[in-house]
Amino acid sequence: MRARSSSIRRDQIEYGFWLVFGDDGSMRFSRSEPKTGRGERAMKCGATLPIALFRTPELRATIAISEGIPASYEINVEAAGEALRHALGVDIDLQVKGAGHD
User: Fold this and answer.
1) Do 50 and 11 touch, CB atoms closer than 8 A?
2) pLDDT value at position 70?
3) Cα torsion 41, 42, 47, 53: sign
4) 15 CB-side CA count, 13 A
5) How far is CA 98 from the centre of its chain?
6) Checking DSSP bridges between strand 40-50 and strand 12-22, what pairing results, if any?
7) What's the pLDDT at 13?
8) Share of the chain above pLDDT 90, in %
9) Could you give the CA distance from residue 15 to residue 29 in angstroms, rounded to a whole number?
10) How far, in Å, are 7, 31, 50, 83, 91 from residue 88 at the CA level?
């Protein structure tokens, strides 16, 4: 990692970067100040991210209900998401999808 583009602090990382937009709809990224052409404009950007972001795993689960279960079951998505959030200590994006969806 280049020190001139990023700074690591105790609890966060500060990133410096440039986005270059072209009048033809193109876009490119650069860690250092870029050279721009006639139809391009550069924008200096910064992002500050907590170190904890890189230490929190992404968890995925799939729950399948077999066909032998009566059709009268009900899943309380909000309660399930809240229980997972409290148990894991991370925000949960819980979605219920019908059969055949990824």
Assistant:
1) yes
2) 64
3) positive
4) 13
5) 24
6) antiparallel
7) 93
8) 42
9) 13
10) 29, 35, 18, 9, 8
Cβ proximity of 31 and 5 under 8 Å: yes
Tokens of 71: 């059709």
Backbone φ, ψ for residue 12 (5° rounding): -155, 160
Amino acid identity of 30? Answer: S
CA-based R_g, the chain, Å: 22
Which helix H or strand E contains 82, and what residues bound it? helix 77-88
Torsion, CA 62, CA 68, CA 73, CA 77, rounded to 10: 0
What whole-number distance in Å separates Cα of residue 18 and Cα of residue 34?
A: 7
Mean pLDDT, residues 20-37:
96
Pair of tokens at residue 70: 């009566």
Residues in the chain, how many? 102
Nearest 5°: the CA angle 93, 96, 101 is 110
**Residue for token digits 């050279």?**
35
